Amino acid sequence: MSAAIDLEPGPTTRPKMQATNLSMFYGDKVAVKGLTLDIGEKQVLALIGPSGCGKSTFLRSLNRMNELIPDSKHTGDVLLDGKSIYDRGIDVVELRRRVGMVFQKSNPFPKSIFENVAYGLRIAGMNNRSELAGRVEKSLQQGALWDEVKDRLEDSALALSGGQQQRLCIARALAIEPEVVLMDEPASALDPLSTAKIEDLISELKARYTIVIVTHNMQQAARVSDLTAFFFMGEMVEVGPTALMFTTPTNKRTEDYVTGKFG
Amino acid sequence: MSPRKLKSGFFSGLSGFAALLIIFALGVILTDAIRGGWSKLSWEFFSGAPTDGMTAGGIFPAIWGTTILTLMMTVAVMPVGVLTAIYLHEYAPAKSRVAAVVRVAVQNLAGVPSIVFGLFGLGFFIHFIGENMDKALGGELKYGQPGLLWAALTLAVLTLPVVIVATEEALRAVPGDLRNASLALGATRSQTLWKVVLPGATPGILTGAILAVSRGAGEVAPILLTGAAYFLPDLPNTLNSQFMHLGYHTYVLATQSPDVEATRPLLYGTVVVLLMLTFTLNFVAVILRSRTRSRANA
To answer: Residue A170: its chain B contacts at CB < 8 A?
Structure first.
């Protein structure tokens, strides 16, 4: 084995977000146990593991969407740029503008394509039509959807195909210029062609954004991510550079999972 | 045939017969009303006032009174009902005692006989609020008597459960995915409510409004004691005017006429108008509801 491979399991850039001894609970049930993990700036971190292993719960803890689930609690902390996002003084609205999210099932509003992308800007108080139009165009271009929809921005978003709807949701999340983008299995409901488009998109976005993506698809994790974290039964078993995780994982359970022995 | 098959056949026949009874009942009501009243339906009937001791003329004052009353009821019931449902569904904590008590109250309110609402309106609105208003305004008898306002408010209390239940159902039908999308974009809860939840729930809320209107427009018992009049030469022109009403007019024509034979076509005609009114409103409600459903499934 070449000595050039970096076996250090940490990110190589400055950490953008950090979880420190984070545990998450739904009622009495533990969903995530004592997790400590750095998420490097402008890197793509993939979270893999079998269903119910806590990876989506962890993802939702990063923009406090988990709080919307009744009876959810946490211990430990999550930092964004070194500051706790669970601090009393933190405005959760502000946090979610900095840490955006794309959901598993595309969920466009029953509004026009334009209004979907403009939504986050409007609620933040932007009303100038030309300013909005500029931001909408830029976001749709970043979401790799502009060329397909530029002539029908006033059409209903619900008329788009599933893959286009998901890219619209990505564009909508990017419109408010977040620093971190969380993606919860963003391509799991899409056909292979749309999936490939989303994956290309993620590779492009990482130049500007820190991305955390939950995926069930090993190949997808291998293709898009810099780092991969393997979750099992609420614990993070292992985290490391993606290339290493898929070739020479240090933990037996990781190896069994990535080679398809279970999951 | 085996006894088991016989039994099964008997029950399927019985249940089918029970279902047919509904169609039969509706059919009889409709054909009877239309056959008796169709010939009376004319412009004069819709636009004129009763004449000759209610044995001739039209029913315009009753149509007008019903319309105004129902409008006022709607204006009163919608804000209260919708806000209550918003509180119950959007703001009350999951295991809230208050919400539980409100829900029980709503269910019980829906089961109160309508004549009791009439008595409630008489006792609370007219004798308590109205008379105290009169005292405060200088003692002249204005609000301490039956009138449009009190009848409308009484009907509003009666139809409150319809609006609350329909609105809550409409709020529940807005997909959680859309709420999450909005919150994840940095919207506050109230922004999410105004910009995503309420627009999505509007057709369902309108359905509730129409169901309330069609229920309220047909009720007679609550307004008997709170404002409906036997006959009035003038249309109501103030909040405390008494008014004529299609439902009460039907009762009057059926029981108080000096000449039963002459009144009968008028009676049937009034019934047809009342049925048309409520059926049209119900029909609109059904259409709105099916549109909400298809949008929710889109």
So the answer is: none
